[in-house]
Design goal:
This is DUF488 family protein. The chain is α/β, with parallel strands linked by helices. It has 5 helices and 3 strands; from the N terminus they run E-E-H-H-H-H-E-H.
């Protein structure tokens, strides 16, 4: 499987394959045409509560990752995760995020789970 993480603000590349936005909110200042997003599975993104908790600096990345993985066990999120896993089994998938540090974000958690 070929799964990678990129910032949504970076220009699309041919090797991106299927471009999946993994943020709950649409990235600021970016048009839908420029983003070239193929899928946006919002139910697979961290809950608003978890996202706010993490961005407030109330916990470690490891705790955030643990809580997020627990959220991904919910039926709708698990179904979407399986769908993205299926896409990755057929070709390249790029997980897109607006996070300034994608390596310590929910996108990195997804990349690990899908990889």
């Amino acid at each position: 499987m070929s799964v990678r993480v990129r910032r949504v603000y970076e220009s699309p590349e041919p090797e991106d394959g299927v471009r999946v936005l993994v943020d709950r909110l649409w990235p600021r200042g970016l048009s839908k045409d420029a983003a070239k997003v193929d899928e946006w599975p919002k139910a697979m993104t961290p809950s608003t509560e978890l996202r706010r908790w993490y961005h407030a600096g109330e916990g470690s990345y490891e705790e955030f990752a643990r809580r997020y993985e627990a959220e991904l066990d919910a039926p709708e999120a698990a179904e979407l995760l399986a769908h993205v896993r299926e896409l990755a089994s057929k070709g390249a998938v790029t997980l897109l995020t607006a996070a300034k540090s994608p390596e310590e974000s929910h996108a990195a958690v997804l990349e690990q789970l899908l990889g």
